[in-house]
Amino acid sequence: MSWKQGFCDHDVSCHDHAVTVLTSKSWWPDANDKQTEPNPSMDLYTAFNSDAVTVKTVDMHTCGEPTRIVVSGYPELLGATVLDKRRYAKERLDKYRKRLMFEPRGHDGMYGALLIPEPDHPDAHIGVLFTHTEGYSTMCGHATIALGRFLIDTQDTVLFPKRVLLRPDPITGVISLNIQAPCGLVRTFVKTSPIPSSDTHPTSNNFKSDPSSPVRFLSVPSFCIATDLTTSVNLPEGPLPVTFDIAFGGAYYCIVPATQLGLPDFADTPYLFSLLRTRAALLSSTVAGDPRFAPLFRYPGSATRGDLDFLYGTIVTDDGDGAPSAPSLSACIFAGAQVDRSPCGSGVSARVAVLYARGRATLGETKVFGSMLSRIAQKAGGGYFEGTPVETVKIGEMDGVVVEVAGKAWYSGVGGFVVEKEDRLGEEGFFILAPGKVVKKITLAPFLSSWCVKLLATNKSHHYFLPEWVKIKPKTHPLGGQKYRVALYGHLKPTFTIKRHRPPTSPAPTSSPPPSGAPSPDPDSAHCARNLPPPPPSPLKGTRSPFHAVRNSCRPRARPSVPRRTPAGWSAGGDRRRRTRHYHGGRPSPLDVGFRSRQTLALRVVWVCGKGLKRKK
Ligand SMILES: O=C(O)[C@H]1NCC[C@@H]1O
Q1: Which family does it belong to (predicted)?
Q2: Staple partner for 120: which of 81, 197, 310, 421, CB 3.0–4.6 Å?
Q3: ipTM surpasses cut 0.85
Q4: CATH of domain 219-406
Q5: What's the predicted TM-score (pTM) here?
């Protein structure tokens, strides 16, 4: 058995770790020492606790939303400024983020924080990068609340050298802690209580955070960028006109009432929530992809070099004002289709900016915001965030408002994460495509198993590795568009529309007209059948291609007329599941091309299983 040292593979500069890294020899002797098993005198738990092989974290949650705070073992973040380090992490260290965010160590709602002991802002005590399943955000309120407590409680002076400078206010016990986030300086206030002197750690300043008091923070100024914008979202049922606002709360959000997405006031039942998530993700991708809206995502000044200029997510609201007697519920769907379990701190800043701009909030007036978990969490002592506009500011031409956000966070555990050298799946981790997840491209790896393919779905910052062999069932559109139902573990059944990624190279074959009563073609998928390159010579000529299940799958035709052949080993007819594997025909599909040399294709999850929402016949 062999282990990697921390997460550091020495393919990046990693000298000078923040922690002492023991040599792996002392803990996990390797083959060179003629000993391949762990030291028998040491149990597995103790060995995992070694700095040599482990990335260590402290895990917290803020109203249910996780923050995995890395305390040691991560490669050094190089760069002069926090934004430089963010760029470096994106470009050079991304697989380490994936290891901690993706399965098997994380999940599709995982969130994390990488601390920067020496920030570049003169007033900052510490810096931070926020990580999620898609990349690196620019601001995060729930993680700031968690970090507020963690940074008061940690005794690690390597991780947080400036902790020694912190002093509680002698009357209130509140400590003021400045955290430099990628969006700027976030002033955080944490209520503390004294530690009895007998318990005091030698480096401690004799205080600890008070779990019963909310952590408060003042983020960078928030802006209501534009109200009552309109667009049209392409749902499987047809286009849906949507009116929404755009606001900045350290990151840019679309803010939209649930009713605009064709949902009840606030959809917190699981079935409606999955619809809400899908539609919010579609709104985000529609707005982000529409050049009309691009100028709205421009942070004033040049200091941030465009690093903040992107739409982070959509906040679906009940359209309430957030009066303390009637908290406003919302769901933040960010970074593609990740669901914020908390009321979203940066989203609260953005929402308060909109309420203020619309005259629905005044300076000093506290508003209360919840998530789909808040009603449950409140029973346990806190599930809402408060947002108060405290000051107006002007940045460039824009009128902004500084918002104070308050919420509570709790410790949920500590972690030690390892990667065995032989573990190819766990090396970067994997990500099961979430229902409604919008992905930009799919790469079909050139390795196949009979009737199944292994999928790697990628876009600029993602790499979704689907760990299981996936069965593909082509479903022909009458006008040639192609849908693929991908069976994942039997319960997730998204339907993919596959588009060719490269520009067309050959003339379109003639399409046959749709049979009467057939569904209308999906505009996104219609061009799949056209302009396919000529079929490449088959390396498997004379043999039965394992991929012929999807061969010619773009040829326009109605399903009942598809001739079926029976591959060896399978009977014709029989149960439905088998029949789907027998689908094949003449012209190559984009999937065939993917089989020969890895090729990238555009892909969008257009539908997930769900009752009553099939395309109308
Ligand atoms: O509280 C927040 O601001 C964050 N929670 C997840 C998405 C946002 O970054």
Answers
A1: Belongs to the proline racemase family.
A2: 81
A3: yes
A4: 3.10.310.10
A5: 0.71
